Each structure stands twice: as C-alpha cells, then as structure tokens.
C-alpha cells in the first residue's frame, strides 16, 4: 500500500512540473517586459537630461542647443520661460508645437533648417516677447502665424531666402508698421532678381502683388548691388541682455553691418589683427566689447568712434605693443579695461596709455606689464614711466623754458606729468611740446 501511494505521489509531482514551467516563463516574460519598460523610461529621461535646465535672474531656462533634435519633447518642463533650440535639425514648425509652454517669454530657433511654419505653430504663447528665426530656410509665411503672439517685441528673420512675391504681402505690411520697429530688421529678399538684397522693411508693398514683366524686359531697372556677405553665423541672445556672439568663428576682421540695437558683442577667439576706424559706429548702444584672444596688433585712431556708452573693453591675450595717440578718446564712460597678456613695449609710445589712464581715474584696468626691452621686462608700465621721467636729463626737461622761471615751470609740469608722484617729474618731451610755455613772459613784470 505504501508503495502504491508513493508511486501516485511521484506521478502527480511529475505532471505538475510543466505547468510550473509555463508560469515561470510567463513570469519571466512579464519581468522582461517590466525591465524593457524601465529601460525605455530611462532612455527618455536621459534624452531630457541632455538639455540643461537652469535659473538665471529668477527665470527658468531650458538649453537644448546642438542636440540634433527634429522636434520638441512632450516631457520637457512646462514652466520654462526661455527655450533655447539653436543649431538643431528642425525643419517644420507644426501646429501647437509649443502650446504646452504657456509661460514662455523667449524662443530661440536660429540656425535650424526651418522651411515652413504652420499657421498655429505658436498657439498658446501669449507671453512670448522674443522669437529668433534667423539663419534658417524660410521663403514665405504670413502675418497669421504671429497673431497668437500679442506681446512679441523682438523678431529676427534675417539670413532666410525670402521670396518677395505676393504671398509675403501680409507679413511685410505687419513688419512695416511703425510701432514694430524691432520686428524683422535686416531681413532681405533673395528673389526675384529685381528685389534681391532689398530689406523687407523698406519694400514698396503695393507693388508686390502687381503683375511683373519678365526678367530682362526693356527698361527694367537693374537690381541693386548686393554687398558681400561678411557676417558669419553669429548667434543672438536676447536674455538676460542683448548679446551678439561671434566667438570662435575664424574671423579675420570685424563683421560688417553690426546690429544697431546690440548691447554686448563677443568677438573673442578669432584671428582679427587690425581694428580700422568706425567699425562699431552703428552700434551706439554697445556697453560691452570682448576682443580677447585674437591676434590684435594694431588699433587705428577712431576705431572705437561712437561708443559713447561702452563700459567694458576686453583686449587681453592679443599682440598689442602700445596704443596710438587718441585711440581711447571716444570712451568717455569706460569703467573696465582688460589688457592682460599683451607684449607691451616700454618705450616712448607707451606713455599715451598711462597719460590717458591717469586722467580717467574711474577706469579699472589690469595687465600693464612690460615685455620689452629686456631691462624692463616684468616691470609695471607705471613704474617704467616713473623711471623714464626721473632719469630724463635736466636740460631736456627744461628745454625751451626761461631759466629765470624754472621753479614755476617745474610746478606746472608737475601738475600735468604722467605719473604725478615726484616733484621733479615732467611730461615726456613730445607731450610737453604740445603745450608751449608761453606764460614765461610774466618775468618781465
């Protein structure tokens, strides 16, 4: 009997094993599914984390530049106020593409490949003030795409191949409204040939929808000459202040036609060797100019003409030896001057810079260290100038002055001398010669 019971139990156990195997495989399958699901969520989170989220001036930014994106992700934070999507692969702006970002104030889409904007692409962006669409492939669009943006203040459309035909009529009319002075500046027609190079803001809109003659017809005026396009793919940032970033572009000269409303320009890490007169003349609101890490060797007089409000000038890490006389005369409100890592030559030519700094005590400066000649290498330029004045022969210091009034001449020179720390100091001869001592005639009385 016991043997029979044992056999029956073995049969029951054997028959139950396949069923447990099926359950085990199913369980394993479910586990694998859960693992795959977690993997997908991790991938999605990783893709989101590739964008940099940060706070600046109390506002939230999401930086998704250079991510090869073709669209926006639905799991991005909804409360961002500034979305940076420059240098991606976006081609079409679809309806309601940004509708979830209702707090958005600025949207940077420059340097993509956008060729079409659907009518409802910007729906929901009632707080948007800044839209950057420059450096794309847009040929035409209408005013309707901008209607959901009642607070739009800055719109950049330049460097797009605009087709100036009748389909562009409503957009151009909107841009030409006087109150829209910061919308669409610098955008130009690419076609037709007759209008190539003309600014959208200055077109005769009434003629766009008229029937045109064929190109080459008798009496047809020639298209205006188009200036060579020197401006590289500089990037414009609107927040926290208006910045034109042209750094690391391989430039050999300052770009032509700089925007007139720009506040900061970054031209660092290029190969600019020479600053010519009036290259920044149109950028009258400029407050910061960064020219560091170029090969800058020579700055012409009037190179900084018009920069009345410039407060910071960075000329560090260049090849400057000295400044020509009056180079800095237009910088009335300069407060910071960076001059580090330039091979300053301590000779007669360096005196102008020290003279200018002495008469502008509000300017904070760094980096004035002699590189040449060898006997002054490593000296502060100010110390070199003191030595230069202290060792100047007496006959040269008083050259052209009446010896009967030598004491009076010394006092006047002391008030004007470059260093102003020694009672025997005088201006270097070239500067002294500019102010002849005509007062010496008082000896006759």
TrEMBL record:
Biased composition regions of type Basic residues, renumbered to the chain: 35-45
Q: Which GO terms describe its cellular component?
A: plasma membrane
The UniProt annotation puts the region (Disordered) at 21-45, 392-411
Question: Does Repeat count among this protein's keywords?
Answer: yes
- Enumerate the SMART domains for this protein: LRR_TYP, LRRCT
* Annotated SUPFAM superfamilies: L domain-like
Q: Which domain of life is it from?
A: Eukaryota
Recite the UniProt keywords alphabetically.
Answer: Leucine-rich repeat, Repeat, Signal
Provide the leader sequence positions: 1-18
Question: The LRRCT domain covers which part of the protein?
Answer: 160-210, 342-393
Q: What is this protein called?
A: LRRCT domain-containing protein
Q: What is the scientific name of the source organism?
A: Anabas testudineus
């Amino acid at each position: 009997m016991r043997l029979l019971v044992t056999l029956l139990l073995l049969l029951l156990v054997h028959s139950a094993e396949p069923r447990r195997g099926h359950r085990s495989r199913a369980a394993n399958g479910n586990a694998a599914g859960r693992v795959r699901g977690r993997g997908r969520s991790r991938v999605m989170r990783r893709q989101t984390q590739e964008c940099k989220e940060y706070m600046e001036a109390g506002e939230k930014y999401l930086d998704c530049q250079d991510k090869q994106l073709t669209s926006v992700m639905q799991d991005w934070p909804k409360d961002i106020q500034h979305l940076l999507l420059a240098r991606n692969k976006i081609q079409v702006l679809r309806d309601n593409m940004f509708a979830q970002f209702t707090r958005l104030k600025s949207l940077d889409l420059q340097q993509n490949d956008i060729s079409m904007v659907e009518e409802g692409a910007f729906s929901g962006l009632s707080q948007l003030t800044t839209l950057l669409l420059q450096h794309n492939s847009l040929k035409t669009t209408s005013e309707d795409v901008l209607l959901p943006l009642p607070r739009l203040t800055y719109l950049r459309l330049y460097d797009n191949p605009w087709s100036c035909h009748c389909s562009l009529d409503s957009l151009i009319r909107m841009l030409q409204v006087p109150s829209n002075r910061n919308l669409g500046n610098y955008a130009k027609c690419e076609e037709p040939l007759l209008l190539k190079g003309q600014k959208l803001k200055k077109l005769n809109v009434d003629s766009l929808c008229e029937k045109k003659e064929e190109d080459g017809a008798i009496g047809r005026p020639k298209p205006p000459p188009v200036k060579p396009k020197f401006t590289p793919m500089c990037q414009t940032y609107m927040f926290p202040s208006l910045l034109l970033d042209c750094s690391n572009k391989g430039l050999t000269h300052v770009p032509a036609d700089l925007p007139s409303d720009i506040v900061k320009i970054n031209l660092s890490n290029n190969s600019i060797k020479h600053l010519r007169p009036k290259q920044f003349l149109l950028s009258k609101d400029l407050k910061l100019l960064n020219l560091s890490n170029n090969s800058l060797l020579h700055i012409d007089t009037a190179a900084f003409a018009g920069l009345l409000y410039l407060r910071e000038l960075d000329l560090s890490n260049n090849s400057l030896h000295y400044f020509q006389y009056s180079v800095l005369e237009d910088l009335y409100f300069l407060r910071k001057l960076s001059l580090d890592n330039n091979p300053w030559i301590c000779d007669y030519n360096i005196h102008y810079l020290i003279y200018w700094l002495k008469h502008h005590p509000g300017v904070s400066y760094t980096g004035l260290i002699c590189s040449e000649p060898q006997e002054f290498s490593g000296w502060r330029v100010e110390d070199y100038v003191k030595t230069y004045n202290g060792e100047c022969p007496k006959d040269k210091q008083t050259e052209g002055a009446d010896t009967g009034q030598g004491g009076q001449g010394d006092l006047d020179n002391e008030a004007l001398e470059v260093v102003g720390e020694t009672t025997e100091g005088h201006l270097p001869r070239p500067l002294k010669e500019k102010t002849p001592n005509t007062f010496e005639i008082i000896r006759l009385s």
